[in-house]
Amino acid sequence: MASAQDWNRHDWDRLWVYNLHYFEDLNAESSADRRDWHRALLFRWISENPPGLGPGWEPYPLSLRIVNWIKWLWRNPVEMDARILFSLAVQVRYLRQRLEHHLLGNHLFENAKALVFASCFFCGDEADAWRDQGMALLGRELDEQILPDGGHFERSPMYQGLILEGMLDLIQAMKIAGEIPPSPWVETASRMVEWLAVMSHPDGEIVLFNDAAIGISASPEALISYARDMGLKFGPLAAIGNRFLRDTGYVRLQRDDATLFADMAMLGPDYLPAHGHADTLGYEFSVNGRRVIVDTGVSGYASGGTRQWERGTRAHNTICIDGKDSSEVYSAFRVGRRARVLNPHYAVIGDRVEAAAGHDGYAYLPGSPIHRRYWSLESGQLTVIDELEGAGKHEYEVRIHLHPDWVVTEADNKELMLSDGDGSVLSLRLSGPLSCRSEDYAYHPEFGLTLPAQVVVAGGCGNLPIRIEMTLNWEMVC
């Protein structure tokens, strides 16, 4: 940064400015090699960001920075300079008066976490008051935000990782302060570990449902290792297999070398849909540890056409009717009309595992269309059947987004061959009143990262009811 103004650049995406103020690099890999630079950066932040000035003093980045500074100081006690300690105390006092009760969700969790962290670091009556307030908030919010199956109620695997890491940090902070972590924290974190393991691809990274990006939270492997270091107990994670996370609404289907993740979830909490997408009945799919069918991901949170597209139905592996979104996403974090999931089903039948559900996100259209989808996974084959119930003439479009490793090499209307260029081949067949084509699309596995990839688009126009079937076969995937 060339000048003090660079802390608050108005021409940068708000998310990137926030990240600048988080100070995540203080505790990143090999951070010890940058300790002198970090110390200088802390002093520079203190001098160039007076209290209350700029986005760095907004409660969310403020909360994350408080925790990161404390973790750094615990690891480097020689750095406990009076200027840093005074600034840290001012930041905690400022935060305490501005808790994000209006936003709730992961924001309020981070606020409460920062208060408890500060109370474990500082001593005295004021620190005790921070602890009382933070502990009360955490007790209430954990009951509300962490569902019985261990999933965070905003239904984002990325935020699951962030909240889980926060829980593990809190457990460790209590131990550093010489106290016993509350048993509900330990039990909750254990359930969250299992949920995260279920919702991770065989390649070790998260599924990209809703607002999710790889590399923002620690990797699932790192979080599982951290949990074990904290003494948490949870079931075996090496062979998770099939699982229906009934409370969050996600399904993991696994057969031999193939794994499918299906979204049969509500968009999010009714009062907090900010990180939800119009992706009902979407899915992701891996074979032999490699992603094949993927969600398009999220490039950032800035309001505008890109954000609208990435939250919309056509950016997901599901059906779009009449060019409309299944849930009415708008602005950066708003949702109006919302799809409701109907009749979720999951079963293991012999060598086949299946899931099914419907949704009413298009029932407001003429003829009241209902979309029902059925997934079946068996050795060497994935079948996805879509049924559009209702009446009247409608346009419909199914999209199948391929990971950048895979491209369409042969296409004969409804029969396509997918190849990775290294000898692995998949056969994709569609049936029903539709025509097929492949298009380019932008894949965003990480914030700010865009990779070119292909999407198979299959659509048509006709009178409901309509049935569409897709089968994907594989014999050799290296």
Brief overview:
This protein is of the alpha+beta class and 478 residues long.
Question: Could you please describe the fold and organization of this structure?
Answer:
The protein has helices at 14-22, 35-48, 59-75, 82-96, 105-121, 125-145, 157-176, 183-198, 220-229, 305-311, and strands at residues 243-245, 250-255, 258-263, 283-287, 290-293, 319-321, 329-330, 334-335, 341-349, 352-359, 370-378, 381-389, 393-401, 407-412, 415-419, 425-431, 435-443, 451-463, 466-476. Strand 17 (435-443) and strand 18 form a beta hairpin. The protein has ten helices and 19 strands. By secondary structure, it is α+β, with helices and mostly antiparallel strands. The mean pLDDT is 95. The two termini are 45 Å apart. Helix 7 packs parallel to helix 9 (220-229). Strands 9-10-11-12-19-16-15-14 form an eight-stranded antiparallel beta sheet, with no helix packed on it. A five-stranded antiparallel beta sheet has the order 1-2-3-4-5, with no helix packed on it. A four-stranded antiparallel beta sheet has the order 6-13-18-17, with no helix packed on it. The chain has a domain at 243-478: Beta-galactosidase, Chain A, domain 5.
How many H/I helical runs?
Answer: 10
Strand residues, percent: 25-35%
Q: How do the strands of the widest beta sheet line up side by side?
A: 9-10-11-12-19-16-15-14
Class by alpha and beta content:
alpha+beta
Report the order of strands and helices. Answer: HHHHHHHHHEEEEEHEEEEEEEEEEEEEE
CATH class of one domain: Mainly Beta
CATH architecture name of one domain: Distorted Sandwich
Q: Give the low-pLDDT segments.
A: none
Give the overall pLDDT as a whole number.
Answer: 95
- Coarse shape: elongated
How many β-strand runs?
A: 19
Q: How far apart are the termini?
A: 45 Å
- Biggest β-sheet strands, sense, barrel: 8 strands, antiparallel
CATH fold node name of one domain: Beta-galactosidase, Chain A, domain 5
Radius of gyration: 24 Å
Helix content: 25-40%
